[in-house]
Amino acid sequence: MSYANQRDPDLGRKLYMGAISVPAQLRGQDIVLPPMASRCVNCHSSASSQASGKAYAAADKLAQNFGPVLEAGMLSNRQSRRGGPASSYELASFCRVLKTGIDPAHILISRNMPVFQMNDEQCEALWQFLNQTR
């Protein structure tokens, strides 16, 4: 069943940018992160260094390299990730990694990546947003 965009056609972008927050925490901790700390765009965007100017370039470079830039095809292309076997994401494995921290190769991703209390509609909307050409 397809849930995404039944209510809000821009839901995926809003989730990615943090305009809509989803409760998240670091794996193994009980503290819910502040919404600004768990936005996808914080760690998975190349636009931050372009927007902030040279004064923050060093900090932005660190943030930019914190996680891979999520662009169309990056998730669904079969490739080795974090030294593990080649794998690719599909909707179900993408939602699993967001909710549990376990990637398609059944490897735990970095503890720096929050786990989210995201429903199926939100997860599918985010998946569709990340897989469209922007």
What does the secondary structure layout of this molecule look like, with pairings?
Layout (H helix, E strand, L loop, with lengths): L10 H7 L6 E2 L21 H6 L4 H8 L14 E2 L5 E2 L3 H10 L14 E2 L3 H11 L4
Antiparallel strand pairs: 1-4, 2-3
Description:
This protein is mainly alpha-helical and 134 residues long. The chain is built from five helices and four strands, in the order αβααββαβα. Strands 1-4 form a two-stranded antiparallel sheet. A two-stranded antiparallel ribbon has the order 2-3. The radius of gyration is 15 Å and the shape is globular. The N terminus is likely disordered.
Which secondary-structure class do the elements indicate?
mainly alpha
Shape: globular
Q: What share of the residues lie within helices?
A: 25-40%
Strands ordered across the widest β-sheet: 1-4
Give the number of DSSP strands.
4
Number of helices: 5
How much of the sequence lies in strands comes to 5-15%
Query: Would you list the SSEs in sequence order as H and E?
Result: HEHHEEHEH
Cα radius of gyration in angstroms: 15 Å
User: Which regions are unreliable across 5 or more consecutive residues at pLDDT < 50?
Assistant: 1-5, 48-60
What do the pLDDT scores average to? Answer: 83
The largest pleated sheet is described as: 2 strands, antiparallel
Distance between the termini: 25 Å
